[in-house]
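Box S1 | Example of a co-folding query
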Amino acid sequence: MKYGLLEFDEPQPDYSRKILHVDMDAFYASVEIRDNPALADKPVVIAKHPDLTGGRGIVSTCNYIARSYGIHSAMAAAEAYRLCPKAVFISGRHAYYQKVSQQIREIFRHYTDLIEPLSLDEAFLDVTHNKKDIKSALVVGKMIQKEILAQLNLTCSVGVSYNKFIAKIASDYHKPFGITLVTPDDAPTFLKQLSIDKFYGVGRKSLPVFHDLGIFTGQDLYDCSLDQLIGHFGKMGYSLYFKVRGIHNAPVKAQRQRKSIGRENTYGHFLTDEDEIIRQLDQLSQRVYEQVEAKGLKAHTVTLKIRYENFDTVTRQIKLDQSLQSADQVQANILDLWQTYGDLTRSVRLLGVTLSSFEENLFETIPLPIEKEQ
Ligand code: TTP
Ligand code: MG
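Box S1 (continued) | Returned holo structure for thymidine-5'-triphosphate
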């Protein structure tokens, strides 16, 4: 294939893969409603009540009842209030949603380790070869939906296809609690009938440009030449030319489970005063614990790192039977390590605190507020 002076191999579609895109329905709002079922038939908005913020504040999300009033993510909370004064406003609990997100990923791991999270509430899964040896990706998708509902009392929507681009659009197709399969045979028709704003990369800013060019649908996009698209949109135009032909071979990039989380500080003025060193260690311990907690992880090992002015570096650790439950506990263990191994006759240029040995199964460690009736 030729473009200007460039000659390149035209990307070919890969129909061999089975990709799921799983996206939770009204995620933050659904978690709040799950924990407080009295909210189920009310419009629920995840935002601080505008009265509490003097009108500032933005809507994170809202349930589908609230959406019927025209409320949506990223809208000013004050505007949401105008649209529906009787809506229930709830401040988000980000750390908690993060824990729920970890629980969802644990369920994904029953099927595959090839998981690429895009945010707390959505992920791509490559289930071509899955742990349950199920041939049909549609069946895997349905099993995941059922398992998330049974274990977590939350619903999600799933897109099933042979590439990430189509799977992501498909998951949005029948929300909430929908599942949409787009086979290689269905893909051309599916892609051509899409409205142009469904194509990844076409945002609020570029949408009018597409419209000015008479491109409103996938079909309009399909009718453009590669030259035209690259001329108008550069790299994105190139990518769109192939996407609308069902060609998008980006792999699902699995995130490795983090083995440790730590922080270290280098001090311009070397530390010699023990009180100051302990203050620094307390601060590092606190920050690291917060980070670990926010990820819903439970650590068993605490490591202290000390680098002296001559660059001698010492690391010492304690492994505990019980996981660390608070920042205070981390601080106490670090203090212990410092008092046992620290050398006050030398100036300190760097201190570090790391938590590791994370528990594999986060699932049982996080109690669910509601038991799901089977
Ligand atoms: P989305 O998946 O975009 O929205 P949703 O899950 O609430 O609803 P849908 O059923 O349409 O998928 O985002 C996931 C979460 O991310 C959402 O619950 C809240 C958060 N979020 C924000 O905080 N701000 C935003 O602008 C958006 C779009 C999402
Ligand atoms: Mg969602």
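The two ends are 56 Å apart (CA to CA). Residues 184-256 form a domain with the DNA polymerase; domain 1 fold (CATH 1.10.150.20).
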